[in-house]
Amino acid sequence: MTRFRHAHPIDIFLSTARFLGLLIFPLLRAAYSLLFTMDRLYDWLAGAWFDILTILAIIGLGMLRWYRMTYRLEAHGIRVKQGIFFCRERFIPYARLSVAATESPWYLLPIRAVHVSADTDGGYPNEADFSMTVYKKEFLPFLKQCRTPFWNNEEIRRVYLPRNLNIAVLSFIASNTLTGVLFGATFFSGIGKVLGKSFEQALVTQITTVMQLLAFGIPPTAAILAFTILGGWIISFLRNLVRHLRFSAVRQGGSLEIRSGLFTRRIFDITVQRINLVEAHQNLLTKTLGLYSTFIHANGYGKKKDELSVLMPSCDKTELHGNLSLLLPEFPLCKPVLRPKRRYLSRFLIPPLTLMAVVGVLWGCAWYLFPFIHNITLYLSIMTMIPCVWFFIVKLVSFFHTGVGIKDNVFTLRYSYGYRFKTVSVPKERIVRIDLRQSVFQMASGGCDLVFYTFSEGHKRHIVPNLSYQEAKALLGINDLPYPVLLRGRKKRKPVSKV
What we know:
Layout: E1 5-6, H1 11-20, H2 24-34, H3 38-68, E2 70-73, E3 77-82, E4 88-93, E5 97-104, E6 113-120, E7 130-135, H4 139-147, E8 158-160, H5 164-174, H6 177-195, H7 197-213, H8 220-244, E9 248-252, E10 255-260, E11 265-271, E12 277-282, H9 284-289, E13 291-297, E14 310-316, H10 317-327, H11 345-369, H12 374-401, E15 403-407, E16 410-417, E17 420-427, E18 431-437, H13 440-445, E19 447-454, E20 460-468, H14 469-476
Antiparallel strand pairs: 1-2, 2-3, 3-4, 5-6, 5-11, 6-7, 8-9, 9-10, 10-11, 12-13, 12-17, 13-14, 15-16, 16-17, 18-19, 19-20
């Protein structure tokens, strides 16, 4: 049996980086400016001795944690030992893994280090069951052992390689302005820690000046807001593009291998029988163009911050069905057999119309109460009304998109969530509960919402709104008898019909 192995020594600094960054950069910057004379050095040491001791304590705890954390690849699973004061030993069977992943960041390549992780359906929602930075020579045996119960070398390798244009479309769809703004703010904060607050303030001042020059008659505040939104979106777009370039998906046996990343290569080995569902996403623009971006839900894939669980970056309807048959034939898509009635159209349109009315009244009051800032009020009212009108169009299109279908015990759910249209393929055994939900108004009109709860580490809901109550019951096989029925005697409760 193989011996227990330690993580790569770089794990000491990776695990303590978020604490060291608060102290070590200011100390190094101050030391650089004071190392020219010994008198100043003594003064600096006298004032910074406590911070230096704190840094040494953090590094010492990191080294102790590294020494006490080991792993071993056994015949049937991964055995992990860790703990500084109390040793904890865990065993993760290969047959229970949902995803085994490796990540090779560009900054770890010179020291031949790779980050590996493994996840099961029974772990924590926000962290992997096993995660460690190891030597590069150890990651191939790790992947080989993890995929052994599912990989079949006798089966044909089915490969999907998207074009770069498909990846660009995915980046366009998935880009988030808020994510980009937060990334930019973190970047400027890091510059401030390394180079000093004066440099950070000078840089922000120069950027603000450039924005004001490019305003072209727009009020400066409005211009800064517009450029911040645009800049955040561009940053998010570029990050998604770099993350998913060189994308590929390979199906062999019961394993699906996904690779992506331009500078940081990522490999995800996914167990097909642990995949919970497949989701095809569209926004209003891509729905008009007939394009889909497809994702899968498997515990451990798409779990990290800003990580997407991509299966197909983008494709048209024909490619969607063809590639699903190639990679995941267990998740077919079918046409809906249950759709909203025409009389339910108002239920789709009332929320956006109400939102538009509220926003219009609020900005009308602002125009009346603050006449000295009419230009800013007009600009902001237009900017806030645009997403409201967009939402109205989305809900109108959602009426024609919404529906439920079933084929070979696999449900196809079509609904909208926010500004996105979703088409979900989920096997019946992965659904843990189905609710027929009715509001007071739906009871009067004979409508209902179908709420599907799917299997995962946390709750995941799919709400298909405004369907016929009687037709929904017929689709699910529910009759009007009591459910469940109490039988006489000592027999257990036995439901007359099942969902």
